[in-house]
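Weekly modeling sync, notes
Attendees: S.R. (lead), two postdocs, one rotation student

Agenda item 3: backlog of single-chain predictions. S.R. asked that every request posted to the team notebook include the full sequence so nobody has to chase files. The rotation student volunteered to paste the first one in as an example of the format we agreed on. Action items at the bottom.

Example entry:
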Amino acid sequence: MTFVARTSAATRRPLTWLTVAVLAVLITLVALPLLGLVRATLSDGAGHTWSEVLASPMSSALFWEPLGGSLVVGLGTGLLSTLLGAFLAWVVVMSDVPGRKVIGVFATIPFALPSFAIALAWESVFRNDHIGGSPGLLTSLGLAVPDWLAWGPVPVVLTLAAHYYSLSFVVAAAALANVGGDLVAAAELTGASRLRVAVRIVIPAVAPAVVSGFLLAFAEGVSNFAVPALLGLPVRFQTLSTRLYGAISTGDEVRGYVLSILLVLVAAVILFAGNRITRNRSYSTITGKAARARTTRTGGWRLPLAVAAWAIVAATAILPGIVLAVSTVLRRTNSLDGGLTLHYWTGASDPSISQGMRGILRDPIVVQALGGTIGLGVAVALGAVLIGALAAYVVRHLPGAPRVKSLIGLLSYVPFLIPGVALGAAFIAQFGAPVGPFGSLYGTFAILVLAGIAASLPFAFQTATTSFGQVSAELDEAAVLTGASGPRRFGRITVPLVSRGLANGGVLVFVTMVRDLSVVVLLVTPATPLLSMMTFRYASEGFTQQANAITLIIAVISVAATLLARRLGDRTDRSTS
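Predicted structure, as returned to the notebook:
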């Protein structure tokens, strides 16, 4: 068959046009914003900004000091998150500690909370009078809180680790669950000590998962914006994310775009280096089908281990919620002396309280932001899952074309390397000005949806790939023999079988968007209010009760949706077992 004939035949297949549509969408959402970001820094009159940021008398304050701050935060977050997550994973999966299943549930909750929720709870307790304003609970009780504990890198790292250790816990727990109990038992029968079994069998088996958890927490710590902004900026502790936000928000867009590109490169180098560490190395210690993980008897350590595990989940999943809830009903910020009130929830305007601001449930802007936040989460979840599902379907069913499949996979993965603030800057660079017949999208709800979908593509694509991979090709082949067309097979066979997995992924995308601040912080305008941005603004302006109350609303929505996703996942596991 000639090339022309093959091309003509391919264009008559619906899958070919679906592939073209998927590539067009991915290029629009991922490639073009990044190219627009680079183009904006190389345009006429902007080239000197690179040398200004990297090698000028101002470069230390513009780039090198924020880079050092980002690396300190990332390294501290990665190490502490890995330590806490791996410990709790071992307790839940392999120990005989009482209540370990409940500990496992609580260990996943902090990641469902907004990162700034834990930061606000920390501020409510540990804030001192170093920068003025209302002090925290400890200071109001007469206890002196040192500056290093109230502000700067230490509280930033501690609060981020309290948020991101859930990532390390999930990946480490999954790895430990696959360590065969029969192999551990056989090693113990040979007289090997528990320490030797751990060093020779358990640790090598879970090493890739531990490294992956560290890299995820490291990358998230480097790119996080909200926590360094709340706990670092008041004492001029800068990271790359806060520095580029400051540049763009003050009108210095080109400098912010340069910092965005550098932040993307830093995150990419970190993840690439981690992949090189574990690539082409064998950590396998198990052959055949692994048996159920063997429970380790902890003897006299059982109670201390239980206390330590419960203390971690209580401090990260329970106490922050209690602190935030209590702070919202205190008449005086972070002080028990003024009595209790529901004014910050339901009160009318009172000039003597919070400069006359109404309670958040009576504030039309907050109500509008609540609707916008839920609407954004739903729109992004639907869009990301749809695009991810179509991309996964093309990669699975497109005959041949390995380069096309690789390009789709690459474009679907690239947003994982782009920190949220940098992605927002890329969308401003590409869509912030009119392009041909299309007007500027900046300040519209559409740019929030598009940026959210782009940021969520890696997870949506991976979830869809896993869901499609669980559908046997034999079902599709049987349908072909009956004469069913491609669209009919997809709608009647594939969609029902993968729908629950896709719904689970959609719920988690919804949670991420509802609680996220980094992606939208540069894109939100007064015309498109969101709860996360209102929380940040209120906290920055000193309206602590209102900020904490809105954060609680976000937390309730996020945790409820996360528990729903967990329940959907459990049902999926039972239905496929």
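Discussion: group reviewed the output briefly. The first strand starts at residue 330 and ends at 332.
Action items: rotation student to repeat for the remaining queue; S.R. to check formatting next week.
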